[in-house]
Every structure is written in C-alpha cells, then in structure tokens.
Amino acid sequence: MKRRSFIALAAAPAVAPLLVSCSGDSPQVEVFTWWTGPGEGEGLAELERLFKEANPDVEFVNAAIAGGGGDQARAALATRLQASDPPDSFQGHAGEELADYVDNGVIEDLSALFESEGWNDVMHPGLLENITRDGKVYAVPVNIHRANLLWYNVSILEEARLSPPQSWSELIEQNATLSEMGVTTLSIGSAWTQLHLMETVLLGELGAETYSGLWTGQVDWRSAEVVAALETFTEVLKVSNVSEAAADWQPQLDKIVDGTAAYAVMGDWVYSYLTTNLGLVYDQEYSAAETPGSVGVFDYLSDAFTLPVGAKQRENAEAWLKVCASVEGQDAFNTKKGSLPARTDTDQSLYTDYLEWNLGQWLDPATVVVGSLAHGAVARPGWKTEIETALGVFVQEGDAAAFAAAVADAYQRTTG
Amino acid sequence: MRRFRKAFPALLLISPSLILVGIFVYGFLGWNLRVSFTSWQGFAPTYDFVGFENYAALMDDPIWWRDVRHVLVFTLVFVAGALAVGFLLALLMEKGVRGENLFRSVYLFPMAISFIATAIIWRGLLNNGSGDSTAGINKLFAYAGLGFLHSDWHKSDSGWAIAAIALPAGWALSGYIMALFLAGMRGVPDELREAARVDGAGEVRVFWHVVRPMLWPTVMSAVVILAHISLKTFDLMFAIDQRSPRIETPALYMYHSVFPGNFYARGATIATVLVLGIAVIIVPYIWYTMRAERRR
C-alpha cells in the first residue's frame, strides 16, 4: 500500500463524519477552532453572524473541537492536514506555532490579500511582524490576549495593607503577612499554568530583552543569570499552593474569589470569566496588575486564522478572513471574548473596565511587546513540549541548573 | 479443490472482519513499527531509516524510566488490590447474601462507566486541599474523626504517588473480578464439596483443599486481564491530573510526545515497546489456554 493512502486510512475514522457533512458542492466554509467555552463560543457566534450577513448563500460549518488550550484540536488538525483534507480555515497562535505550519507548507501566503485589503496599515505593527515570515504574511489575527497579569483579591490586599508587588522578591516578602492571615499568597493551577507562571517570572527577573533572547538562541539558558531567575521561580513556588494545585485555571482563580488566596498569575481571559460568568466587579472585588517586574511590557498571544493549502472552497475562506479582519468583526468578537482587537483603528469606546486600561497599554508606542511561551508565540511545538516535560521534573525536584540544561539541549535537538 | 470449496464459505463469512483486523490492527502495528525506525520529528512525515537509534535514545531517557517505574507501581497496586477486593466480595456473595442479585449489579456498575467519567469523579474525591479547602475522601476522613488519615493522594511527593490512581481503577474493576471469582467458585461441583464434608473437613478446609485449587485458572485470567488493562491505562491519569509528572506513564509519554510535540518517531518507539510489554504478559497466557483446550 502506498504511503499516502496509508495515512489517508489512518485519518479515515476521524474524517469520515466530516466527509458526510461536506459532500456535494454546496457553498460553505468550514472553520476549525477550539472556541467552545464561555466568551469565546459567543465571540465565534458573532463572527458567524457577520459572515452570514455578508455571504447569505454560504453555509457556515463550525468544526470546533473543545479542550485544553487547543491541544486536542491541534492533534485532530494535524491528522487532517497530513491527509491533505484541511478545513477551509483554521485557528492558530501567532508566532512560532504558525511558523511551524508555514515551514511545513500547509498554509498559504496571504500577502496579496493583505495588500488589496489594506490590512498592512491597520494591523498592529508589532503583531504583524509575528505573522510574517520572509516578508510574507500568513494569517489574519483576530485578537490579542495578555499573559503577564497578576490577578488579586482587592479586599485581602486592603486588609493586609499591601499593594501588588513590583518584583518577585517583594511577592515572596509579602508571604509573611499573608500567611499570618491564613491566606495563600499565590494560587496555582494545572501543569500549563505553571509554565505560564514560569514565563512571567523569567520576564520579570530578566527583563524583556533577555527574555526575548531566550527563544532565539541569543541568550544562553545555562548562564548564571537565567539559572538565578529559575531559582527565583522555585522560591515563588514555595509561597504558593503548588502541592495542592487546582485542576485548571478556573478553580485556580476561584481561590482568589473565595478569599483563600491573594494572587494568581493568568492571562486576561480571566476578565471575561470573573465578570461574565461569576458576575464580579472589576477593580472592586478583584483587580489586575502587571506581573512583578513587567510594567511597560506586554506579553502577548494572538489567535489568527489561516488559509490552508488545498482548502476546498478558497473563495469562501477568503470571505471568512475578510470578516475576521473587519472592524465590525474584530469589535463584535473581542467584546464577547474579553480580548483586544488586532486592528488599531477599531472603536475604542467599546472597550471598558479592564479592557480600556489594557488597550491603552497595547496601543502605547512605548510599550515593549514580547511573546508568550505557554501560548505558542515563541517556541516551536516540539521545543515547547520538551520544556513542559522538563518543567514537570523541575517543579518536583527544584534543580534549576538541570532544567536549564534540559531546555538548552531540547532547543538543539528540535531546531538543530 | 474440494477442500477449498469446503472452506470457501467459511472464509467468505469471516473475511470482512479478517480484512478489517488485518488493516486496522496488524497493518497499523506494522506502520507504527516502521515509523519507530525513522527520524520523523515535526509535522511532515519522514520515512528514512535510522536503525535502533530511537530505541537507544529511549533507553537513555530518564523520563522514560521514571514512567516505566510508575506503571510498574501502578500495576502492582492495582492488580493486587483489585484481586483482593474482588476475591473478598465473591467470597461473601458465595456464602449467600440476601439480595445477591442487587449487590452483584451494584458492584459491577462502575465497570460500565468510562474511565474518563470515573477520573472526573475521582479527581474531586482525591482532592488534597487542607484546612478550609479539605474535600473529597479527606473530608470523609475528617467527618469520621480520622483526620490523621489525610492524604495527598496522587499529588504526594512520594515516588508511590501513582498508587493513588489504583483506587479509582480498582473501584472500577473489582466488581468485574468479583464476577469472575464468583463464576469460578460456582463452577466447583457441589459433589466435591459434599464428599469433603463427609470426610469430616470443615468449611475452611473445604475451601482450601477443594475450591482453591480449582480457582487457579480464574486467578490467571484475572491477572492477565488486569495487568494488560493496567499497562494501557491512559484516560484515568490524563483526566485526573493532566501532565502531572507524578502520575505519567509510558502511554501518556507516548501521547504527549506526538501531540502536540510532533515527536512521531519517539511516540512510535514507545508504542512498540508497550506492545512488546503487553505481549510478554498475554502470549504465555494464550499459549497456556490453547494447550489446556487441546488437552481437553
């Protein structure tokens, strides 16, 4: 049996139900995402509504796969791409995750579309850089999330007469006061939230420039400076509930809400969870600050849509991308999801509360933009997986030098 | 020709399943083996040949050996625990409990629940929160005045943390083991027991000298079934604490290598070693049963 047909066979069980729904030539657009949760599901529905208004004859097929920051969805997507049966458009994280698709030749160059629609002038320049490879643009970004945020319980801090820490050592110092009150200083969730935390500790301790150098090979992981920052991370874990870590990020934040913990590091999808799902008031019951040592830095991640090579209904896929890039599309989606628009010319009055503060920082030319490790912006999937595995051992055993060596080795193996 | 004509209808009848099993089981086993000899890392398939390089790398990989140790600990605790509990339940049933049918079903029900659902229930039960956030089994302990039994379960620092996962696994399968033992015990002819009793044996001696020797085939089947389930168990650990290094087994390492890491060759290598490991348990068993059947 030929190799290709073998792979097709391997994919058959996964694809069969989709084939049934795709039969015939009726105009449609199949959009693949991992947006099913609260906020993001509604956001996608808004985009779907706008798409149908603009393209009433085209059926919108929502091929979303739920779960875990997209890991399950990406596994299913990989199978479909290898079988040369791509959806008409799929979601990916801007940065290295997309670059991996580019290098494997599974997504198309969108430069012409960007040119004709004039998107080059309206997308945030820092972001545009991250979806461009060798001068070609490969994806249409719909939103911006921020990862370097420290969420806290306002009344606990008032009671303790503390303000959000400016450095990680200050956070560790605050532990004395907080533990006296019977409050956990830092709430932690499952393994990926620990990766997220580590990235913000590195960012705060090393500064934006060195942090960015970690991902390009310019900064040596084994250097004394990096190892010292990693040791700070183990100190931070000691003032956390890592031994009783919550099962996911929502229960991690629930500890802030019920007042058993003071701080939690998490991205700003927290805002829509706490405001919309739990009905809390921003700046009164909970608030957010930059993670220690990262004032003026924006640790971003962005969801973007692509045009896969061999998309069955290319025209409709382009129509979909146009909806994603439009001002109406970006505003409708992001106000539901609780994220920022990737365009810089949208209606800023729609973004209130936390989003207003955050949008101001994002658009401020003085803000330094760096990419998130935990969310696919700076490390290839292979390297990131190896970092996650090594981090599990590191959190357990606390050997910073061994972890740094493992990460550096993995970089050699996965990019070499 | 005549033999062919005689065998043909039978062959025709089993051919659909033969073809499907041939492709979807043996075909993919072969493909997996092929991939394990390549350097396929990354999105696009690479079909080169690197010999046993991946196997050598795996043998040098501390993560692999950590996971192997985990699965051995898990298997030991799970198989022994489920056997002991299943046997005890069967013994009590066999003595004649009122409402035996009801109990039998109740104990069997957990097996009907998928491991994922079981895991999500037990994720709550095995909560290790302390103080105000005490929950699950620890809370039951506290209510019963047994607070000192508070355990960190699978989040414990001990190398045996994964043994806690044997609780949900055993909970799910000991009812099934009970059914196996019960069938085994009921299969012992009453005449044999009667004869022993006539010879003056007490109930304990009847069990030890008459029933026990006839239960060995049941024990064998139970051990093989449990051990191979244990080696494959994936969903329980996956759903109870995702990506926790304390409860990672080779099956999970395989999955995480491929999705989303794209280490296809390493994943295939782990899968091949796992198949061999399961074969070590199952092949002697099949050989043994086939021989036993031929003797009959």
UniProtKB/TrEMBL annotation, chain A:
<comment type="similarity">
    <text>Belongs to the bacterial solute-binding protein 1 family.</text>
</comment>
<dbReference type="GO" id="GO:0030313">
    <property type="term" value="C:cell envelope"/>
</dbReference>
<keyword id="KW-0813">Transport</keyword>
<dbReference type="Pfam" id="PF01547">
    <property type="entry name" value="SBP_bac_1"/>
</dbReference>
<comment type="function">
    <text>Part of a binding-protein-dependent transport system for a sugar.</text>
</comment>
<dbReference type="InterPro" id="IPR006059">
    <property type="entry name" value="SBP"/>
</dbReference>
<dbReference type="InterPro" id="IPR050490">
    <property type="entry name" value="Bact_solute-bd_prot1"/>
</dbReference>
<keyword id="KW-0732">Signal</keyword>
<feature type="signal peptide">
    <location>
        <begin position="1"/>
        <end position="16"/>
    </location>
</feature>
<protein>
    <recommendedName>
        <fullName>Probable sugar-binding periplasmic protein</fullName>
    </recommendedName>
</protein>
TrEMBL record, chain B:
<dbReference type="InterPro" id="IPR000515">
    <property type="entry name" value="MetI-like"/>
</dbReference>
<dbReference type="InterPro" id="IPR051393">
    <property type="entry name" value="ABC_transporter_permease"/>
</dbReference>
<dbReference type="InterPro" id="IPR035906">
    <property type="entry name" value="MetI-like_sf"/>
</dbReference>
<keyword id="KW-1003">Cell membrane</keyword>
<feature type="transmembrane region" description="Helical">
    <location>
        <begin position="71"/>
        <end position="93"/>
    </location>
</feature>
<feature type="domain" description="ABC transmembrane type-1">
    <location>
        <begin position="68"/>
        <end position="287"/>
    </location>
</feature>
<dbReference type="Pfam" id="PF00528">
    <property type="entry name" value="BPD_transp_1"/>
</dbReference>
<dbReference type="GO" id="GO:0005886">
    <property type="term" value="C:plasma membrane"/>
</dbReference>
<keyword id="KW-1133">Transmembrane helix</keyword>
<comment type="similarity">
    <text>Belongs to the binding-protein-dependent transport system permease family.</text>
</comment>
<feature type="transmembrane region" description="Helical">
    <location>
        <begin position="160"/>
        <end position="183"/>
    </location>
</feature>
<keyword id="KW-0813">Transport</keyword>
<feature type="transmembrane region" description="Helical">
    <location>
        <begin position="214"/>
        <end position="231"/>
    </location>
</feature>
<keyword id="KW-0472">Membrane</keyword>
<dbReference type="GO" id="GO:0055085">
    <property type="term" value="P:transmembrane transport"/>
</dbReference>
<feature type="transmembrane region" description="Helical">
    <location>
        <begin position="7"/>
        <end position="29"/>
    </location>
</feature>
<feature type="transmembrane region" description="Helical">
    <location>
        <begin position="263"/>
        <end position="288"/>
    </location>
</feature>
<keyword id="KW-0812">Transmembrane</keyword>
<protein>
    <submittedName>
        <fullName>Carbohydrate ABC transporter membrane protein 1, CUT1 family (TC 3.A.1.1.-)</fullName>
    </submittedName>
</protein>
<feature type="transmembrane region" description="Helical">
    <location>
        <begin position="105"/>
        <end position="125"/>
    </location>
</feature>
